[in-house]
Hints:
- This protein is of the alpha+beta class.
- It contains two helices and six strands, in the order βαβββββα.
- Strands 1, 2, 3, 4, 5 and 6 form a six-stranded antiparallel beta sheet that branches.
- The longest helix has 22 residues, at 24-45.
- The radius of gyration is 15 Å and the shape is elongated.
- GO terms for molecular function: hydrolase activity.
- Keywords: Hydrolase.
- InterPro entries: 4-hydroxybenzoyl-CoA_TE (IPR050563), HotDog_dom_sf (IPR029069).
Amino acid sequence: MSDVFTCEVQVRWGDSDRLGHVNNTRYAEYMQEARIQFLTSKLAAHGGRPGYVVVRKMSIEFLKPVTDRSGPLNVEIFTTHVGTSSFTVRHVVRDNTGAECASGDALMVGFDTVSEKSRPLADSERLVLEAALVPA
């Protein structure tokens, strides 16, 4: 069975407009925050730390508005693909009632900051990502 990671993300005062609706760009920030927590905590548990990764492509499906009263949000994270140097992370954003507000996929690529090219995923990264794998 896969290891689905869940973290809590706060809806911040500055995230919403005057009507109390969260701006759609903030969903990507919530997903990024959850993804960083996922990679950092899971790799630390295996004695590693995340190498550099970059977002190659991201898509978000907006299903239900998030408002000032929707938080705290829960973001579920799992992987749907693990390749040699890339992996795909699925994010599911739920409000404080458990209703799904958005889902999104991020294609992440291991990145070498010296050569500025892709790099193979480390064994510790692969171990964590494969444990969280839920085939699409």
